[in-house]
């Protein structure tokens, strides 16, 4: 067997890199920053500019749309998961590692979340402003101007003066009613502030991105040709919308004034005479919530990743481990229930191979999914059903303490994650012992003052399921332990030569 090319912890490739960048933010959720971010990203791409998208997390849905707009994976930038001083290197690393065919990006577009200064506390920790300051990136503020004229200037002036260290590329006036309204607001902002107006976006009669309970409606992971065509139509419409109404040249000039980023710390190649374990991950219309950084961490730990589908009936190859991310299983209950791949999941779990499931993936491992009083059978690997409800049952950041030894998380480890689920657990009997204690957080239910999460199953405790999502760079033990567990079965299976990673596809594929 040929020696496997793996990676050592750190390799600095240069002293610094130049990456023009913009942070897109607003006053609150629903201000229009997603439409602006997608429109700018695709518009610059259509101009021939290579764009690295990023999302101030935690977020899967907007990030997936940004990846489609840029035709390359989006980075997750979140000062809750990584110290603020590590965010510049994280962005630079994503710009290099997520580049298809080595095409290093020429611009980064970073979409914020909530309002610019909204964070976890009165000091604004984990806010979009904190990300912009950490990246030394200018902010392009989108302002919803509906039923507003001169007051817009007061709002912009207040936002700009609130954090004097923050630099603004300009403001985009959104939701203007007519040309006269646009002129009034522009004149007021330019008269009373030093923030340039980069454009006015006319009011749209309807949102081109329909929404549902957890975000945007059209699945960014779908390979259905009709859905793909509709997505492309929407993104190109938003690009034209931005091109027609925003001064992209001024925006790019402001982005180019950002200082150089520190060199990213990338894994350096090393050789190890071990088998390369093959880990599958499901990415289809039902399950598609994965941070690209998580997949990269598994590759760096030595895994060969194989992209799988539960819904299309295609057979799965032999696997040494399985990663089931989150998603929308409640939208495809009958298709999932009848999928022959559920037998493959059970066989994997019963053979002792590692299976790691988050949120929607956890729901797939349960006895049943309850919808409107109807129980739809699932994998039945865990003695619990999950009931889908109209309101969130768990939402926000969590701190997890591992109270049981697992193949993925050592006992005594503490790590950060997040939860966002509309389902709750319905136990067949008394609730079992849990592997995780959450504070804050809900997980699978609260016992005393802590949320409880993390079920262990399988003949050797090889199955781990939780509502908690993790971000691999913030949980450095996870990928190494997952790949090591998968390697125990890989050593007994003939392998193709290293380098045949079937998950390496462009974001728009």
Give an overview of the whole structure:
By secondary structure, the chain is α/β, with parallel strands linked by helices. The protein folds into 2 domains: 19-262, Rossmann fold (3-Layer(aba) Sandwich); 275-490, Class I glutamine amidotransferase (GATase) domain (Rossmann fold, 3-Layer(aba) Sandwich), CATH 3.40.50.880. It contains 13 helices and 31 strands. The strands form 8 sheets. It has a 7-stranded parallel sheet, sandwiched between helices. The chain has a 6-stranded mixed sheet with strand order 16-14-17-19-30-29, with helices on both faces. Strands 27-28-26-23-24-31 form a 6-stranded antiparallel sheet, with no helix packed on it. Helix 9 (292-300) crosses helix 13 (476-490). It is globular.
Key descriptive features of the protein:
509 residues; alpha/beta; Rossmann fold; 2 domains; 30% strand
Helix content: 25-40%
Query: Remind me, CATH topology of the largest domain?
Result: Rossmann fold
Note the quaternary state here.
Answer: single chain
The CATH class of the largest domain: Alpha Beta
Shape: globular
What does the radius of gyration come to? 23 Å
Beta strand %: 25-35%
Structural domains: how many: 2
**Could you give me the name of the CATH homologous superfamily of the largest domain?**
P-loop containing nucleotide triphosphate hydrolases
- CATH architecture verdict of the largest domain: 3-Layer(aba) Sandwich
Main sheet attributes: strand count, strand direction, barrel closure: 7 strands, parallel
Average predicted confidence as pLDDT: 90
Q: State the helix count.
A: 13
Low-confidence stretches: 1-13, 495-500, 504-509
Category by helix and strand content: alpha/beta
Tell me the distance between the termini: 33 Å
Number of strands: 31
């Amino acid at each position: 067997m040929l020696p496997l090319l793996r990676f050592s912890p750190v390799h600095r490739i240069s002293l610094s890199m130049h990456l023009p960048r913009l942070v897109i933010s607003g006053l609150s959720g629903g201000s229009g920053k997603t439409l602006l971010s997608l429109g700018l990203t695709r518009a610059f791409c259509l101009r021939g500019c290579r764009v690295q998208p990023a999302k101030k997390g935690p977020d899967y849905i907007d990030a997936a749309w940004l990846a489609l707009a840029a035709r390359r994976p989006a980075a997750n930038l979140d000062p809750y998961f990584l110290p603020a001083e590590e965010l510049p290197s994280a962005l630079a690393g994503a710009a290099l590692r997520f580049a298809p065919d080595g095409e290093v990006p020429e611009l980064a577009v970073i979409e914020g979340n909530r309002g610019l200064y909204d964070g976890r506390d009165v000091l604004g920790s984990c806010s979009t402003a904190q990300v912009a300051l950490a990246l030394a990136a200018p902010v392009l503020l989108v302002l919803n101007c509906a039923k507003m004229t001169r007051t817009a200037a007061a709002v912009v002036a207040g936002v700009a003066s609130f954090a004097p260290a923050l630099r603004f590329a300009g403001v985009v006036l959104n939701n203007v009613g007519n040309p006269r309204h646009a002129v009034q607001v522009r004149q007021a902002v330019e008269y009373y502030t030093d923030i340039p107006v980069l454009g006015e976006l006319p009011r749209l009669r309807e949102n081109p991105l329909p929404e549902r309970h957890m975000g945007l409606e059209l699945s960014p992971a779908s390979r259905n040709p009709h859905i793909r065509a509709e997505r492309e139509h929407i993104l190109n419409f938003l690009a034209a919308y931005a091109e027609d109404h925003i001064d992209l040249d001024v925006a790019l000039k402001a982005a180019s004034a950002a200082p150089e980023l520190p060199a990213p710390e990338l894994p350096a190649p090393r050789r190890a005479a071990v088998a390369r374990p093959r880990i599958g991950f499901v990415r289809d219309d039902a399950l598609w919530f994965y941070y690209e950084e998580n997949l990269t961490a598994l590759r760096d730990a030595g895994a060969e990743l194989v992209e799988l589908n539960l819904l299309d009936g295609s057979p799965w190859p032999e696997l040494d481990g399985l990663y089931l991310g989150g998603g929308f299983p409640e939208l495809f209950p009958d298709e999932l229930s009848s999928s022959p791949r559920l037998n493959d999941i059970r066989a994997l779990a019963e053979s002792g191979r590692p299976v790691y499931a988050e949120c929607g993936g956890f729901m797939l491992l349960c006895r049943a999914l309850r919808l409107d009083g109807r129980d739809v059978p699932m994998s039945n690997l865990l003695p619990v059903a999950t009931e889908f409800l109209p309101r969130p049952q768990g939402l926000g950041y969590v701190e997890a303490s591992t109270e049981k030894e697992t193949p993925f998380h050592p006992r005594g480890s503490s790590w950060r994650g997040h939860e966002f689920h509309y389902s709750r657990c319905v136990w067949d009997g008394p609730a079992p012992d849990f592997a995780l204690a959450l504070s804050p957080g809900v997980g699978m239910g609260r016992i005393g003052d802590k949320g409880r999460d993390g079920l262990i199953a399988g003949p050797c405790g090889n199955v781990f399921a939780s509502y908690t999502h993790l971000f691999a760079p913030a949980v450095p033990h996870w990928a190494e332990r997952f790949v090591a567990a998968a390697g125990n079965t890989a050593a007994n299976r003939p392998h193709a030569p290293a380098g045949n990673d079937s998950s390496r596809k462009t974001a728009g594929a």
